[in-house]
Amino acid sequence: MFKILIIYIFAFIIFLPKVCYSFDWHTPPDKWSEPRVFHSTFENRYNEQIVITSTEITNETKKCQYSDNKAYWFTLQEPDFMKSDPWSTIIEIFNERDYLINIQLVDHNQYEVKAKWINEKLIYIQVWWGRVLGSYLIYDVEKEQVIIKEMLHDGNIPFQQYQQVRDKE
What we know:
about 170 residues; alpha+beta; five-stranded antiparallel beta sheet; 10 strands
């Protein structure tokens, strides 16, 4: 009987944090002063929604966002949100090669995709797949690869739930 009790206590100690904190919180929501976006490991099922290809350079006039060194640029082609979903956004990147890199973010929600230069060669891209789940990636235009990607989570619901529990105590 005592061994069974020890096993239950051990299981409780080991698995309770995993149940209560299904994320590896940097700081759990009960310590937050307000809701925030938090991050987790990238979920590979979203790889299919990030399509990277290359295309020919055209002479179209586009609204370009230049890097600090003015050598590279990107454009953001947003979907027509007045039409029904699915929506896709295309980011075209020029990196002094004889082609453009296209990053297509397929089937995202109605929030605008954000893209901005971090420095002369890195682009931060943020996309929301739904109301509370998104991703960010950092793309290196010289290496032509994603160097970091993580999931984003809107922290409003966890914050509210922890506040409700605290208020009941």
